[in-house]
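lol so apparently i was supposed to do this last week
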Amino acid sequence: MSSQALAAGRKRLADALASDPDLDSLLDRFDNWSKDLWDGLDAVYDGHRTLPQVIEVIARIHKGRSAPLRQRDNQRILQSDWYQDPKSIGYVCYTDLFAGDLQGIRSKISYLKELGITYLHLMPLLNPRPGNSDGGYAVMDYKSVRPDLGTMEDLAELADDLYKSGISLTLDLVLNHVAKEHEWAVRARAGEAKYEEYFYTYPDRKIPDQYEETLPEIFPTFAPGNFTFNKEMNKYVWTTFNEFQWDVNWSNPNLFLEYVDIIGYLANQGTDCVRLDAIAFIWKRLGTNCQNQPEVHSITQALRAISKIVSPALIFKAEAIVGPQDVVHYLGQGKHAGKVSDLAYHNSLMVQIWSAFAARDGRLLDTALSRFAPVPTTSAWATYLRCHDDIGWAIDDSDAHAAGINGHAHRNFCADFYGNEFKGSFARGVHFQSNPLTGDRRTSGSAASLIGIQRAIENKDAADLSTAINRLICAYAIVFGFGGMPLLYMGDEIGMLNDESYKNDPAKADDNRWIHRPKMDWELVQSAQNGDGVAGRVFTAISALINARKNLNSIHASVTAETETQNDGAILLIRRKHAAGTLTQIYNLTEKTQYLDTFNVAFGDRIEAISGRKMHFAGQVAVPPYAAWWIHE
Ligand code: GLC
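anyway here it is w/ alpha-D-glucopyranose bound
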């Protein structure tokens, strides 16, 4: 049955684009990916009904795809592993805080290039609701840019400039919700049935209450509950995040088609990667936590197959901040292996790095990562130390149990340690969304403040400052050495500290995640580039990591990082066994020198790749506090 439907779809596509010069290659791609499309589509919607509509959208997107972007499609097909490559280095920033506006970003391309950046994630810039927009994650219009940042034309020009400079562009695509000011929501409130069906609305609390029994709360402090009463409609609306973010209904095929169109539109502006925001939440099922439902993966598979057909230069990055057993599904498991997102955030690695530095012990990290299911060799993790969000202490109970510790107690320890409630902690962070019901507390704070640089500066303690800088570099070395797309978060390269100024802005004051979203300090960048002060030390060390990584083929994401610990967890070893050679990474997670028995680690004369230093391995080797060594065989 599906083959008939696909043959009809193919014919429809060929007819719609009869005189198109690139029709043959489009049809080749259709032949290659249409089965994935059908399988994803028909698992959730009625394939026979929806496919012809999808084909129409594909034809429209293809017509709007410019010649340079069609050429980019061909280039990316030839270099389909670009996001796995050791030369890929990501940078994440807010347009306004980094450079004022989109024109400003163009003037910073040289800075990014010099740093070695090849992938730029510009934080939400599609037109958000006015006032509090959850940092731009409440989008009012996906087809226009936030007015003070520029226009869609500016964005397209920027994407082109970036591409010519060897930098790909990532944009956020918020899939789970729209701002309540979005046209769909406005029309739903006006009583248009078509648009009411784009949302989840209920006449009374009966069904919402049933869902609430198993739903967690994302923002218990400033947005408790998952439903909001809307007076105009006299109904309850599903609002997982803030009351102004209305969850959209993905069980409606018309909504699916809207997003197909939006993805195509963004791809046609020159976007290279869409970050699928909060993707875990897009399918609801009574009696569950309404995250990670199987339909999410079928929908992603369909969307990605469409994108591979019409805009193969575009890749997908899943933002699913979920547990280890669930997150691997976003890169594809079982029938979806290699067919869903190309990149996914490695939230567990991020959490485990912070946990290991607090505990001075990598054993939980090792246990948790060793228990990860394999991911497709065509995919890559997005690795990171900090991002614009809080750190949720997502330590899995069974991982903790396997490592011989108590998960609940360890989560509390991490929250205390990084939230300024643990005597002797090096961190300066703040609690985010303390939930008295569950005891859960998350953490906000910049990398430099959380890792000890702020404390050392406050205490004017030069030795402690050096230790903290080394700790930061050690942490970033794990991020850069693990494999995948490492993401440098704006300001981390110059060790920017917490910024309290958000408290003066009423649209931000309630949300302390703004403490780690500072305005880029370009004066500090300049002194960093001259090698001065803390910023200079951090900048020089981060640059060295980037340069070292680019020359190590063994960091290619197609092979998995293997972890191990020594010295009662004080030493973390990461091994990357690649045909190009094995890379052994040695990290001292403590402020004490560790005497490492190098038997089975490395032997003889070796070059340490980050420093370029010659080293000799035999017997025991003294590993200085927070040393990070990459040893290539
Ligand atoms: C993602 C974003 C976060 C936002 C949420 C809702 O998790 O990273 O900042 O609050 O989605 O869109």
